[in-house]
């Protein structure tokens, strides 16, 4: 059994597919058992030989002996005492993992062959690389980047998943995922909750503990993985799964109930989305609008920046589907753990404290304006509000508003419709903004507290780092004080205050937030019904 940080609720029973990146595989690792490392290497060599034998026979039958000869030379390399000896002695001399030594030996052979004049010898470099990759895959019992055709009931196991990796998961096949690193508010964990698939993060070395094809149980509630479970455990978890689903069904009765406390205070329970189509999940789960549209996901998984037209269509779609319900759209929050392949970003020591979100947008005004124009145009089709992320001072908000006003002027000149009185607000996710909330409240229409970042900045505890997750405490008195200050400051100016960090959907935090007077709770679709239930019963 292995334990990690429960990141997305639910149970899954299925088979492991390891998703391992080459650079993650070939890190140097100290070993303490030389014999077992040598045995691992021998096993990988034998498997590689068997595979090549089969491939050679097939090639001979289908393409003739001359075409099959290349595999013969690959097999010869596997039996070459110098090649294999170099790997073995490297492992022994340095007491490190075979993968790392294999890579070094292959690199050395490749550079020797590459430097030769003779074309035939140059070609040998490719053969060595090919054989090296084969041994590496067998050494790890893992596929490399390519996870290929997935079977049903797949549990993805990875060192880490980027937000875009997670967004790409095929939900018809992938029933859960596990990662070595990460915390509850890493974007991969947030995505898992949106996808409503169980996930456990911060598992330490799960990629070394399981193999491809292992049969496992994932308990996304307790954060536990059971590898090769007994019949009894499988039955027990099948039962838990049925109960969990039944409970979810029962909660669905609240979907169309307006959220009010027992005392009659109206509270808005809304959803966080990453793509326009996610509004359906929010509505199905009883969401009363959207409190956070993370627009950066529109910018991911593509080669070029989305155009104004593409963005307009996406925002308009969400606005129309929400049919008058509030839709808070956050402007581009790129940087931190979210990168774009086509937008060069500087290498930074502390990307979460660096060039990201509003800082980047205020610096790259052309890029910002494309999004603002699209947002304004979409505001003609629903109850759309614009929210700026990572605001740390009044000055930044005023600058953003100034650019927004320029966009309004441009659209007016072009005769394009937009809602002239649309609300603009900010995320309170930097401690300086929470401390200065009384000043900021005079300028904005609303606040939304981004606790995912606010907690990490207040407590100096990286939200992605499982090693400090014990410090990352939403209920820390310092965090609670900042939250209370922010809500009070908004109310003093007659403005509303929401929360779109994961804390808003945390069942243990909801009663406290209600008591503080929070007006709007925005969360992953999968958390909405339970939050509604707590509020209705309060
Ligand atoms: C937050 O920081 O709380 C938040 C909602 O934004 P993100 O998780 O996208 O940083
Ligand atoms: Mg944030």
TrEMBL record:
Residue span, PEP-utilising enzyme C-terminal domain: 248-535
* Bilayer-crossing regions: none
Coiled coil where?
A: 24-69
Does the record's keyword annotation contain Metal-binding?
A: yes
Q: Cell inner membrane: is it a keyword of this entry?
A: no
- Catalytic activity as recorded in UniProt: L-histidyl-[protein] + phosphoenolpyruvate = N(pros)-phospho-L-histidyl-[protein] + pyruvate
Q: Where in the cell is it found?
A: Cytoplasm
**Cofactor(s) the protein needs:** Mg(2+)
Q: Which NCBIfam families match?
A: PTS_I_fam
Question: Can you name this protein?
Answer: Phosphoenolpyruvate-protein phosphotransferase
Organism of origin is: Clostridium rhizosphaerae
């Amino acid at each position: 059994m292995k334990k990690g940080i429960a990141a997305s609720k639910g149970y899954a029973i299925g088979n492991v597919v390891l998703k391992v990146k080459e650079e993650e595989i070939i890190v140097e690792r100290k070993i303490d058992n030389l014999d077992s490392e040598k045995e691992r290497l021998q096993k990988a060599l034998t498997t590689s030989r068997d595979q090549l034998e089969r491939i050679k026979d097939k090639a001979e039958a289908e393409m003739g002996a001359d075409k099959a000869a290349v595999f013969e030379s690959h097999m010869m390399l596997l039996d070459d005492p110098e090649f294999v000896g170099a790997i073995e002695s490297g492992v022994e001399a340095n007491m490190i993992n075979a993968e790392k030594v294999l890579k070094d030996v292959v690199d050395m052979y490749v550079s020797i062959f590459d430097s030769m004049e003779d074309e035939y010898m140059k070609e040998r470099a490719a053969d060595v690389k090919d054989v090296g990759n084969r041994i590496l895959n067998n050494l790890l019992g893992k596929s490399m980047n390519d996870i290929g055709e997935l079977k049903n009931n797949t549990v993805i196991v990875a060192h880490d998943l980027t937000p875009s990796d997670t967004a790409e998961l095929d939900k018809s096949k992938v029933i859960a995922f596990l990662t070595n690193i990460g915390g509850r508010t890493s974007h991969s964990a947030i995505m898992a909750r949106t996808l409503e698939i169980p996930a456990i993060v911060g598992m330490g070395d799960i990629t070394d503990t399981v193999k491809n094809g292992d049969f496992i149980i994932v308990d996304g509630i307790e954060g536990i993985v059971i590898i090769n479970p007994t019949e009894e455990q499988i039955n027990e978890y099948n039962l838990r799964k049925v109960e969990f689903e039944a409970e979810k069904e029962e909660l669905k009765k609240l979907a169309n109930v307006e959220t009010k406390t027992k005392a009659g205070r109206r509270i808005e329970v809304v959803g966080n989305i990453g793509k326009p189509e996610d509004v359906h999940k929010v509505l199905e789960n009883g969401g009363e609008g959207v409190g956070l549209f993370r627009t950066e996901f529109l910018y991911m998984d593509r080669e070029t920046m989305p155009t104004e037209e593409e963005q307009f269509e996406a925002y308009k779609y969400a606005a129309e589907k929400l049919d008058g319900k509030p839709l808070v759209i956050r402007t581009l929050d790129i940087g931190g753990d979210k990168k774009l392949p086509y937008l060069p970003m500087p290498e930074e020591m502390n990307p979460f404290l660096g060039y990201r979100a509003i800082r980047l947008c205020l610096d790259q005004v052309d890029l910002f304006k494309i999004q603002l124009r699209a947002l304004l145009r979409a505001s003609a089709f629903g109850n759309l509000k614009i929210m700026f992320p990572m605001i740390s001072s009044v000055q930044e908000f005023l600058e953003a508003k100034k650019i927004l006003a320029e966009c309004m002027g441009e659209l007016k000149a072009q005769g394009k419709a937009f809602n002239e009185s649309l609300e603009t607000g900010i995320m309170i996710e930097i401690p300086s903004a929470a401390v200065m909330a009384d000043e900021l409240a005079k300028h904005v229409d609303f606040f939304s507290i981004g606790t995912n970042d606010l907690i990490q900045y207040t407590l100096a505890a990286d939200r992605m780092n499982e090693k400090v997750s014990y410090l990352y405490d939403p209920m820390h008195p310092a965090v609670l004080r900042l939250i209370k200050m922010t809500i009070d400051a908004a109310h003093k100016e007659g403005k509303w205050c929401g929360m779109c960090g994961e804390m808003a959907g945390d069942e243990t935090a909801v009663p406290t937030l209600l008591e503080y007077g929070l007006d709007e709770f925005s969360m992953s679709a999968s958390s909405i019904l339970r939050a509604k239930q707590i509020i209705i019963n309060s």
